[in-house]
Design brief:
525 residues, alpha+beta, GROEL, domain 1, GroEL, 2 domains, 7-stranded mixed beta sheet, 3-stranded mixed beta sheet, 16 helices, ATP binding, GroEL-like_apical_dom_sf, ATP hydrolysis activity, Chaperonin_TCP-1_CS
Length: 525
């Protein structure tokens, strides 16, 4: 129905008849309900005993995961407020690589607490102010929980293991994968920073996940352009081309009439000469291995194979960039411009067959600045989830190494946050105190969910955790097989980067307060 206002006794139409408008409490309730529903969809995946979700799209493709960002992105979410919770997980994933479920669940619970306050006639602006003040207190609490010890390899291994515990890691334990993750990050770390982009993950179906290994270089999903080419080249000089090593064709369709055998032979000779020229130019350049984004004619490939040159054709642009970056090569767009200064280098390039796939391994030398975690698994679902778990672990280890700050996991940091916020809330005047206290109640969702997912009564666990925190200063839910105890997470190697907790608090608060402030939704149809 059209929205209208009266002006001088005459109606003035503002919105079209196709628009839908929801205002006031109805708009707030609708948005909060949508945000809570999305957060609830990932809540049961939290922690070492978290469950997986099976997501089936309209085409029948299946994704099995407990990664919060993946679940939310795979879901067909249309409600705009619910999309904002998805953005929370995306932001968390982009900034620190893990904690996506925590951030989404916290945002949903902040909305739930805000809904209760709104029903008590607490104004949305007061809630927003209280939440922002509580978030500042939360950041102070996180700083107080930072471990004073230096972040060494043992702590980094604990960070990686904590990140992967409860995720699908195939036949491998999180502990064994953590060693690989730390080795990979240490390989690309300098005194100044961590070149996280220099660590890639390559998946390959067809073996047990126990075959997962770290490759000092890169892996390209390509096979040699000719069967007669060498399968291995050591101390390789590498050319990366954007050149088609085939007979040039015009952009315009044209036909040429050949009236005699002499003309035909001349055309064949010209074509042969062109192809031979390509082969000779490449061979004379001194390159041992050639990667090109374009096609290579069979005759050129044969000639280069006879010269002992290994060639890979039809690379995607991203693969070509990766090879050039890893080996130090410069991409060349014209064969006549190819010089030795354009070459990259590697200690060894070899090809291996895995089932029906051939892979090229570029290892050592300049290429060793980049490392690849070569992930194996028996099925596509296994390697996909392994890739997600390892990717998150690489991110959090890089984050922990760069910041040098880790905090206790297992819900201990959240217990500390809630305790400090309640303590500080007593000194806050007016209704804003209600919002600050509500923030603390929302943070409790993390240890409550961890307890619920381990089979413990969440209320009893929360009471015990608070008591242990008051007496010991740190208390988390430690899962060891079927046994769940309350203890200091640092003593059991359950640690998280401090930045993961900070980002979760900040992004969840930002999304929740933005949604709470909305009291008018106008949707065009």
């Amino acid at each position: 129905m059209a929205q209208q206002r009266r002006m001088g006794g005459q109606p003035m139409f503002i919105l079209s008849e196709d628009s839908q408008r929801t205002q006031g409490r109805d708009a707030q309730s609708s948005n909060i309900m949508a945000g809570k529903a999305v957060a609830e969809s990932v809540r049961t995946t939290l922690g070492p005993r978290g469950m997986d979700k099976m997501l089936v799209d309209s085409g029948g493709d299946v994704v099995i995961t407990n990664d919060g960002a993946t679940i939310l992105n795979e879901m067909d979410i249309e409600h705009p407020a619910a999309q904002m919770i998805v953005e929370v997980a995306d932001s968390q994933e982009e900034e620190v690589g893990d904690g996506t479920t925590t951030a989404a669940v916290l945002a949903g619970n902040l909305l739930g607490e805000a809904e209760d306050l709104i029903e008590q006639d607490v104004h949305a602006t007061t809630i927003v102010e209280g939440y922002h003040e509580a978030a500042e207190i939360a950041l102070e609490a996180i700083a107080e929980q930072v471990n004073e010890a230096d972040v060494d390899d043992e702590i980094l291994r604990q960070v990686a293991e904590s990140s992967m515990t409860g995720k699908g890691t195939g036949g491998l334990t999180a502990e064994s994968l953590a060693e690989t993750v730390v080795e990979a990050i240490r390989h690309v770390a300098t005194d100044d920073d961590v070149a996280r982009d220099n660590v890639t993950v390559h998946t390959q179906v067809g073996a047990s996940s126990n075959a997962t290994e770290l490759v000092p270089g890169i892996i390209v999903d390509e096979e040699p352009a000719h069967d007669g080419m060498p399968s291995e080249v050591e101390d390789a000089s590498i050319a990366v081309l954007d050149v088609e090593l085939d007979v040039r064709t015009g952009d315009v369709d044209a036909e040429y009439a050949i009236d005699s055998i002499d003309q035909l032979n001349a055309a064949i000779d010209a074509e042969e000469g062109e192809l031979q020229g390509y082969a000779e130019t490449v061979a004379d350049s001194g390159a041992d291995v050639v990667f090109t984004t374009e096609d290579v004619a069979d005759r050129v490939a044969t000639a280069l194979a006879n010269e002992g040159i290994l060639v890979f054709e039809g690379l995607g642009d991203s693969d070509a960039r990766q090879v050039a970056s890893a080996t130090g090569a410069r991409r060349v767009g014209d064969l006549e411009d190819l010089e030795t200064d354009d070459f990259g280098s590697a200690d060894r390039i070899h090809t291996e067959a895995f089932g029906g796939d051939d892979l090229a391994f570029v290892e050592g030398g300049a290429a060793a600045e980049t490392v690849t975690v070569f992930v194996r698994g028996g099925t596509e679902h296994v390697v996909d989830e392994l890739e997600r778990a390892i990717g998150d672990a690489l991110d959090v280890v890089a984050t922990a190494l760069e910041s040098g700050e880790v905090v206790p996991g297992a819900g201990a940091t959240e217990i500390a946050i809630a305790d400090k916020i309640r303590e500080e809330a007593a000194g806050i005047e007016g209704r804003k105190q209600l919002a600050v206290t509500a923030f603390a109640d929302a943070v409790d969702i993390v240890p409550r969910t961890l307890a619920s997912n381990t089979g413990r009564d969440p209320i009893d666990a929360l009471v015990d955790l608070r008591a242990a925190h008051e007496s010991e200063g740190r208390a988390g839910l430690i899962t060891n097989g079927d046994e769940v105890t309350i203890d200091d997470p640092f003593e059991h190697g359950v640690v998280d980067p401090a930045d993961v907790k900070r980002e979760a608090v900040e992004s969840a608060t930002e999304a929740a307060t933005m949604i709470v402030r909305i009291d008018d939704v106008i949707a065009a149809e």
